[in-house]
Amino acid sequence: MQERLQKLIAQAGIASRRKAEELIASGEVTVNGEIVTQLGTKADAETDHIKVSGKLINAKIAGREKVYVLLNKPKGYLSSAADPEGRKLVTDLAPSALGKLHPVGRLDYNTEGLIILTNDGDFTNFITQKKTVPKVYDVKVKGLPNENAINKLRRGILLEDRFKTAPAEITELQSTENNGWYQVILFEGHNQQIRKMFDAIGHSVVKLRRTQIGHIKDDRIAVGAYRLLDEDEVKTFKNPPREIVKKAKPPEKTFEPPRKPNLRGGKSGRPPIRRTQS
Fold first, then answer.
1. pLDDT of 106-131, one tens digit each?
2. How would you class 140 by CB atoms within 10 Å of its CB: exposed for 0-12, middle for 13-18, buried for 19 or more?
3. What's 37's DSSP letter?
4. What DSSP designation does 21 have?
5. What pLDDT, on the 0 to 100 scale, is given for residue 277?
6. Exposure string over 63-87, b if 16+ CB within 10 A, otherwise e
7. How far is it, in rounded angstroms, from Cα 65 to Cα 56?
8. Whether the Cβ atoms of residue 159 and residue 196 lie closer than 8 Å to each other
9. How far apart are CA 253 and CA 236, in angstroms?
10. Which residues are catalytic?
């Protein structure tokens, strides 16, 4: 059966569909010995010889077992399968026995938290393109933004790079004297979006951690550790429950009763002293 080349490359676990399109456009893909650069070109993995960077991938397409890894990413790791600068990669944290994996979406270099690694290009395409899969973050910011500023972010804001954010769900957590803490729920994934959002209101992000992807959350995974997702967890992404995310409860506001008016005069509530003439 003929299928698009980028889909076949993704099925082989070579790259995500988007990266596969880049490989095709750059002339790295051949079909039956001929270079293919036209996106949308189809091939049959059972009858055509498909090569990427000179290596035949037909066997990988036929026998690739799909793997889904939930990783708790530390800071200082790049969300990529390769880096010309030689920086540490999230894929380095998964055992080589699982084969070649790629990250589903991305977390910034200095952001920690949950990210999925897989060899399933179709799954990656579904998660990254769908605007119905929520990503939940805990955010610590410098200073204490006022409610008007937070409401701007909730409604959507034009960032410095001219990207207009969609409405976001933001709940205040237990802030400290010097730093605000918030739960932020996004359904999109613009580059460094949360950092840019809070920069736009003058309160830079101090700490950022992703705590949930769709219905998947796991507080038991240590930073830098991982676990495999089971079949039901993967399938649920396409048939999610009605209430995926349990929103954080805002902290209770302390109530200070109004002071009683001082009807007797004087700052202490005592009657004023009257001086008598002698």
1. 899 999 999 999 988 889 989 988 88
2. middle
3. -
4. H
5. 52
6. ebeebbbbbbbbeebbbebeeeeee
7. 18
8. yes
9. 37
10. 108
* Percent helix / strand / coil, the chain, rounded to 5: 20, 25, 55
202-232, pLDDT tens digit by residue?
999 999 999 999 999 988 999 999 999 999 9
Residue 5 has which token pair?
């080349």
Q: Report angle CA 9, 14, 15 to the nearest 5 degrees.
A: 85
Q: Say what the pTM is.
A: 0.71
CA 243 to chain centre: 19
Rounded to whole angstroms, the Cα distance separating 128 from 104 reads 7
Contact call for residues 122 and 34 (beta carbons, < 8 A)? no
Separation of alpha carbons 193 and 165, rounded Å: 8
DSSP 219-246: TTSPTT-EEE--HHHHHTTTS--S----
| Contact present, 171 and 247 (Cβ < 8 Å) | yes
CA pair distance 49, 56, nearest whole angstrom: 7
Domains present along the chain, CATH in parentheses: 2-63 (3.10.290.10), 135-216 (3.30.70.1560)
Q: Two tokens at 105?
A: 């979406």
Q: Which of 132, 91, 107 is nearest to 193 (CA)?
A: 107
